[in-house]
C-alpha cells in the first residue's frame, strides 16, 4: 500500500463520510452537549478496530487508538455546534429551527475528516505492519474554548509525539501562525442592598462597580498593545431599579496574539476591578472560565502540510456549486467579498471568484489571519502541532454565520472535508515512513519551548 492507495481508500469512503458529516450537521449539539455526535464517532471507531478510552470527568471526550510503537500521532476531532445558527442548505436566511443551534463553524466536517484520515491510515498500518500509533481525540467544547484545555489538564495527551488538525474556512492554506491567545473571566461584585429611594446612603451598589470597572477597562485599551482585544458583557446588572443592586457580574474576554500579553493585560484588568470595588466600597472576586494559547508555529510540520496540500490538490467545483456559492456571496457585504477575493485569489484579477481554488502560496500563508481563539492552540504548546484550512465556505463567508452553516451542510463543505481528510492522511503517511521528520519537528518544538513552558490557564 502506497500513499496513492491510502488516498484512493479515502476516495472510496466518500459517500460514507458525507453521510456521517450530514448526520452531525442535521443534529447540531452545542458545546458540552455533544452526546450523540461523540457516540457516533466512538461507535464507528470501535467497529473499525480502535480501542476507545474514556476521559474521566468529560462525558463527551474520548481517545480512540490503533497501532503500536512510535510515532504516536494525535488527530484532533471536534464536533460541537453553535447556538442560534440554525440554517438550511439554502442561499437565503432560512433557519431549520428558529434560534436553534447550527454548524456555523463546520465542526461536522472537522470531526468527520479526522475520522476518515485515521480510518485510512489504520488500513495502511494494518497492511504494512509499520510501527506507529494513531489516536483520534474526540474533543468536545471547542466553541467555549475549554475542551482541550481540560483534556490537557487531565493528562489525556500524554505519550503523543505530535498532533494534527485542520479547520473549515474560506481558503485552502497551510498555517504557520493562528489564533489569538485569550482569557475568559467573570467578575462578580458584591455590595449592600438598600431601598434606592428611602435609604440610598445605606446601600453599596455592585452595579456601580461593574460600570466603573468597564470605564476603567475602556481607558486601559489605550495603553495596551495595538493587537489586543478586550470585550465584555454585563451578565448580571441587578434587578429592579428601586433596590440598590447587591450582586452584579460582568464577563470579559482578553485576547492578544501572544499568551504573555494576555496574562499581562489580565493582571492589569484585575487591578481595574479592584479599583472599582474600592471606589464603590464593594468587594470583587473573579473566575477564569477558560483561557487558551495562540498556536505555536512548527515550521517542519507547516512545510510538510503545505507539501501535501500541493501534492493532493484542491477540489474542483461544479457549475451548480459555484452558483450556490455566488448566491451566498450576494447576501454579504460586496466589499468584504472583494477584499477576501483579492487577498486569496489575486489571479482572479478583479473577476468574480466564488470559492477559493488551488492552494495559497506558502509565502502568503501568513497573510491569512485567524483572529479567533481556539483551545487547539494549547495542544501546540505541549507537543509539535500543525493545523491547516480548507475552503468549505465561499470566499468572504465568515465562520460563525448562517452562511457558514449552509455551506457546511452542502457539497462545497464536503469537498473541503475530503480534501482535509486526504491531507491529514498524507501527512501521517509521511510521518510514519520518515522518522527524521518527527524528530525534526520535536527538536524544533523543544527549541521553541526552551524558555517558555505551557502553564494551564485553568487553576
Ligand atoms: Zn471552529
Weakly predicted, low-confidence segments: none
Corresponding CATH superfamily of the largest domain: Zn peptidases
The largest beta-sheet arranges its strands as 1-2-4-3-5-11-6
Give helix % range. Answer: 40-55%
From the coordinates shown, what is the CATH architecture of the largest domain? 3-Layer(aba) Sandwich
In N-to-C order, the SSE pattern is: HHHEEEHEHEEEHEEHEHHHHEHHH
From the 3D structure, determine the CATH topology of the largest domain: Aminopeptidase
Please outline the major beta sheet.
7 strands, mixed
Termini separation comes to 47 Å
* Total DSSP helices: 14
* Mean of residue pLDDT values: 95
State the total count of DSSP E strands. 11
Strand content: 15-25%
> Which ligands does the model contain, each kind named once?
zinc ion
Describe what you observe in this structure.
- A 7-stranded mixed beta sheet has the order 1-2-4-3-5-11-6, sandwiched between helices. The protein has a 4-stranded antiparallel beta sheet with strand order 8-9-7-10.
- The protein is globular and about 80 Å long.
- The protein has 459 residues and is an alpha/beta fold.
- The protein has helices at 3-12, 14-26, 35-47, 107-128, 147-153, 206-220, 259-280, 299-312, 319-329, 334-344, 376-379, 402-408, 411-433, 435-448, and strands spanning 51-55, 58-68, 72-78, 132-139, 162-169, 173-174, 181-190, 229-236, 247-256, 283-292, 385-391.
- The chain is built from 14 helices and 11 strands.
- The structure holds zinc ion (ZN).
- Zinc ion (ZN) is lined by residues 105, 107, 142, 167, 399.
Topology:
Layout lengths: L2 H10 L1 H13 L8 H13 L3 E5 L2 E11 L3 E7 L28 H22 L3 E8 L7 H7 L8 E8 L3 E2 L6 E10 L15 H15 L8 E8 L10 E10 L2 H22 L2 E10 L6 H14 L6 H11 L4 H11 L31 H4 L5 E7 L10 H7 L2 H23 L1 H14 L11
Parallel strand pairs: 3-4, 3-5, 5-11
Antiparallel strand pairs: 1-2, 2-4, 6-11, 7-9, 7-10, 8-9
Bound molecules: zinc ion.
Amino acid at each position: 500500500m502506497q500513499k496513492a492507495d491510502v488516498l484512493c481508500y479515502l476516495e472510496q469512503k466518500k459517500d460514507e463520510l458525507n453521510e456521517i458529516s450530514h448526520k452531525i450537521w442535521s443534529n447540531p449539539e452545542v458545546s458540552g452537549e455533544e452526546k450523540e455526535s461523540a457516540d457516533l464517532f466512538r461507535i464507528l471507531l470501535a467497529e473499525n478496530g480502535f480501542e476507545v478510552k474514556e476521559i474521566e470527568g468529560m462525558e463527551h471526550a474520548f481517545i480512540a487508538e490503533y497501532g503500536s510503537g512510535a510515532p504516536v500521532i494525535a488527530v484532533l476531532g471536534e464536533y460541537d455546534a453553535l447556538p442560534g445558527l440554525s440554517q438550511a442548505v439554502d442561499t437565503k436566511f432560512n433557519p431549520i429551527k428558529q434560534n436553534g443551534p447550527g454548524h456555523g463553524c463546520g465542526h461536522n466536517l472537522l470531526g468527520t475528516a479526522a475520522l476518515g484520515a485515521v480510518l485510512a491510515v489504520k488500513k495502511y498500518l494494518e497492511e504494512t505492519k509499520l510501527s506507529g500509533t494513531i489516536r483520534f481525540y474526540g474533543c468536545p467544547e471547542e466553541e467555549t474554548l475549554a475542551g482541550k484545555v481540560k483534556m490537557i489538564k487531565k493528562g489525556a495527551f500524554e505519550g503523543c509525539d505530535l498532533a494534527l488538525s485542520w479547520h473549515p474556512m474560506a481558503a485552502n492554506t497551510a498555517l504557520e501562525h493562528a489564533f489569538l491567545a485569550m482569557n475568559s473571566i467573570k467578575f462578580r461584585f458584591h455590595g449592600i442592598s438598600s431601598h434606592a429611594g428611602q435609604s440610598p446612603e445605606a446601600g453599596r451598589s455592585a452595579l456601580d462597580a461593574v460600570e466603573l470597572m468597564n470605564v476603567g477597562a475602556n481607558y486601559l485599551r489605550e495603553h495596551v498593545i495595538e493587537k489586543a482585544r478586550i470585550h465584555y458583557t454585563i451578565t448580571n446588572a441587578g434587578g429592579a431599579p428601586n433596590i440598590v443592586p447587591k450582586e452584579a457580574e460582568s464577563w470579559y474576554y482578553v485576547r492578544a496574539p501572544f499568551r504573555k500579553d494576555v496574562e499581562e493585560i489580565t493582571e492589569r484588568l484585575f487591578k481595574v476591578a479592584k479599583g472599582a470595588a474600592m471606589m464603590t466600597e464593594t468587594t470583587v472576586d473573579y473566575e477564569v472560565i477558560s483561557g487558551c494559547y495562540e498556536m505555536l508555529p512548527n515550521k517542519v510540520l507547516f512545510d510538510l502540510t503545505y507539501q501535501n496540500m500541493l501534492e493532493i490538490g484542491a477540489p474542483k467545483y461544479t457549475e451548480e456549486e459555484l452558483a450556490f456559492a455566488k448566491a451566498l456571496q450576494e447576501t454579504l457585504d460586496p466589499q468584504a467579498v472583494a477584499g477576501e477575493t483579492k487577498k486569496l485569489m489575486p489571479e482572479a484579477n478583479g473577476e468574480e471568484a466564488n470559492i477559493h481554488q488551488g492552494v495559497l502560496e506558502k509565502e502568503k500563508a501568513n497573510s491569512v489571519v485567524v483572529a479567533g481563539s481556539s483551545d487547539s492552540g494549547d495542544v501546540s504548546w505541549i507537543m509539535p502541532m500543525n493545523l491547516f484550512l480548507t475552503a468549505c465556505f465561499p470566499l468572504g463567508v465568515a465562520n460563525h454565520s448562517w452562511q457558514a452553516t449552509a455551506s457546511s451542510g452542502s457539497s462545497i463543505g464536503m469537498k473541503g472535508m475530503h480534501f482535509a481528510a486526504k491531507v491529514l492522511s498524507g501527512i501521517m503517511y509521511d510521518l510514519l515512513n520518515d522518522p527524521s521528520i518527527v524528530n525534526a519537528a520535536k527538536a524544533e518544538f523543544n527549541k521553541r519551548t526552551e524558555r517558555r513552558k505551557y502553564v494551564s490557564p485553568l487553576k
